[in-house]
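Hi C.,

You asked whether I'd gotten around to modeling the 102-residue construct. I have! Everything is below, sequence then structure, no commentary in between.
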Amino acid sequence: MHPLFQLSTRKYKDEIELIKKAMMELEGICNIKNGCMISEPFTRAGWTFFNIQLSSDLSSRIEKSGMMEGAGGYRIAEQLKNFLGHFLEARGIQARIEKIDY
């Protein structure tokens, strides 16, 4: 399974580079190459939306490593979304994150 999340931001140009850097950092922590894919953005009502899809290897490594401990949520998908949201927020990224598919 490849978890898919939608991010939305009002500051896409400022935040996309921070998001790419944070995702490369997460891949490095997990020792996974090409662990995520960021889709092309689209804009609606002043917000820019884009998707991040995690590879099954990256999501499995995150789940098994204990990184999601304290992320909150009853299901793995919700915990992964909360973990990823906190991970990005800790790096100064203010994008909203929603789970699309897990």
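If it helps when you're writing up: The chain has one domain: 4-98.

Thanks,
B.
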